[in-house]
Amino acid sequence: MKTLVYGSLNIDHVYRLPHFLRPGETLPSEKYSRGSGGKGLNQAIALARAGMDTWFAGGLGQDGLFLKEALEGDNVNTSLLKMADVPTGHAIICVNDEGENAILLYGGANQTVTEEDILRTLDACAPGDAVLLQNEINLVPEIILRAKERGLTVVLNPSPASPDMANWPLHMVDWLILNEVEGFDLTGQRDPDAIADALLIRCPAMHVVLTLGPEGSLYADATSRLRQQAMPVDAVDTTAAGDTFTGYLMQGIFSGMKPAEALRRASCGAAMAVERPGASASIPARAEVEKRLAQWTEGN
Ligand code: RIB
Q1: CA-closest residue to ligand 1 atom 2
Q2: Which residues contact 175 (CB under 8 A, 6 or more apart)?
Q3: Mean pLDDT, range 72-84, rounded to an integer
Q4: pLDDT band for position 159 (50/70/90)?
Q5: pTM of the entire structure?
Q6: 3-state secondary structure of 85
Q7: Which residues are catalytic?
Q8: How far is ligand 1, taken at its centre, from the CA of residue 240, in Å?
Q9: Rounded Cα gap, residues 238 and 236, in angstroms
Q10: Whose CA is nearest to atom 8 of ligand 1?
Q11: Separation of 40 CA from ligand 1 center, angstroms?
């Protein structure tokens, strides 16, 4: 099977700052870099590095051709990418001394998906394939509906959260991977177990994975629930940690791992991404993750 990531590509402009800007403040940046990012691109690269046959669909402007090359450099199939007549999406990412980030997004070509694009793109998939979505492109609910009609497994990372998400056809989503903020927006609950309960009442067939930052993660379905601790690391930059988690988790699940094993490996990959600066540049290779996972397991 293959996984089609239908998602965003961003040119990431990353600034290191001692603290996040306050209203009216002007602050010189200590360091600047430009790199490849976007939740779609990052998750595609994480899936591919984990070992998945990964395809990518989305919109790109002429100024972002290096993002296509980045995907291809990780063996992601880009034949479904659409060149748009608008600038590529971009992100202004501020990283503070604690390694936390604050991100400003400009959608650009990420927001040019049409209904015709969706039908044509999904023609490349067969029943049993999976589609992985985030919330940085337009028409996500339409993609969920069309993908489900065709017998695809639908995985949704509803990030970043938006007010309309609660009205999306979530009952058609097989795997929902979200953080507590997105969980609150979807359910009105703050407690992780209460978020999972509310989602499973609404969508009993769903697999819910809640990421809890340094508190680890929670997996829940209709009959089972488990917790995974986070691997302790010194945080350099949390950007793309969630994307790394999602890619490694779903490649593990699709290759036949049980949720507990896939969750642990995804937690290890995500923690490694936190130790490194950048978005896609911080995503570890499979061999590195497996080595570190063995060390973590020995130490516990
Ligand atoms: O999840 C990290 C990503 O969010 C960055 O690469 C940035 O482009 C934003 O989409």
Answers
A1: 240
A2: 153, 154, 155, 156, 206, 207, 209, 250, 253
A3: 98
A4: very high
A5: 0.97
A6: coil
A7: 243
A8: 6
A9: 7
A10: 38
A11: 8
